[in-house]
Amino acid sequence: GEDVEQSLFLSVREGDSSVINCTYTDSSSTYLYWYKQEPGAGLQLLTYIFSNMDMKQDQRLTVLLNKKDKHLSLRIADTQTGDSAIYFCAERGSGGATNKLIFGTGTLLAVQP
Amino acid sequence: DVKVTQSSRYLVKRTGEKVFLECVQDMDHENMFWYRQDPGLGLRLIYFSYDVKMKEKGDIPEGYSVSREKKERFSLILESASTNQTSMYLCASTRDKKEKLFFGSGTQLSVL
What is the pLDDT of residues B9-58, one digit of tens each? Predict the structure, then answer.
């Protein structure tokens, strides 16, 4: 079945770049998403990329998609303490009536001052 | 902004109790979802609904049921709570199946 995997933890220093990685198995994925969950809150959509794109940039965020390797990454430039959160990768398949998103396990990003 | 409201932030229940988790959205969304979030497992879909009185099983429906009597409200029901249902429960909604999900802030349920 479909599976999305992420490393569980990443620690960086304030001002450095963070790179959070994700691998998925469904080659028919149409959209891939990055969600952010701050402590005590629900998930908020950060950014997404359509499967026919290689890269998307949005201010400090850069999403890279390697469709051949089924690898997605999120780069956060100039990481700030406010970026400390859990980041979830999610993918949506291409067919059927389902709107089901498959989420990864989440990566806890800890930003050290 | 879309608001998805979950009625309780924290709940503590006893084994065997019937538990209702309520979720309300204010943007007339057709689609609503219940996920549970557990450390190291990410989010897993329990049930979802595309319309009033319509429901479909997600990946882990066992031990749960849902109710969608009105478009804005989607309830998750634990008929007889068990300790392995201790978890964070997240409700989400979306206007149509290609749009992003809007999440509530979650209900942390502890079953003792």
Answer: 999 999 999 999 999 999 899 999 999 999 888 899 999 998 998 999 99
Tokens found for residue B68: 């969608």
- CB nearest to A104's CB, from B42, B45, B94: B42
Q: Which amino acid is at A70?
A: K
d(CA B57, CA B50): 12
Q: Are strands B65-70 and B73-78 parallel, antiparallel or unpaired?
A: antiparallel
Q: Give Cβ neighbours of residue A53 (< 8 Å, ≥ 6 apart).
A: A65
Which residues of A are less than 8 Å from B50 in CB distance?
97, 99
pLDDT of residue A95 exceeding 60, the answer is no
Please enumerate residues of B whose Cβ is less than 8 A from a Cβ of A: 4, 31, 35, 40-45, 48, 50, 56, 58, 90, 92, 94, 96-98, 100-101, 103-106
Question: Do the strands B107-111 and B10-13 form a parallel or antiparallel pair, or are they unpaired?
Answer: parallel
Residue A10 is which amino acid? L
Q: Is there a contact between A4 and A89 (Cβ–Cβ < 8 Å)?
A: yes
The first and second tokens of residue A101, run together, are: 């998103």
Short-list A107, A35, A23, CA closest to A73: A23
Q: How many whole angstroms separate alpha carbon A39 and alpha carbon B9?
A: 13
B30 φ, ψ (degrees, to nearest 5): -75, -40
Q: Rounded distance, CA A69 to CA A55, Å?
A: 14
Residue of B nearest to A40 (CA): B105
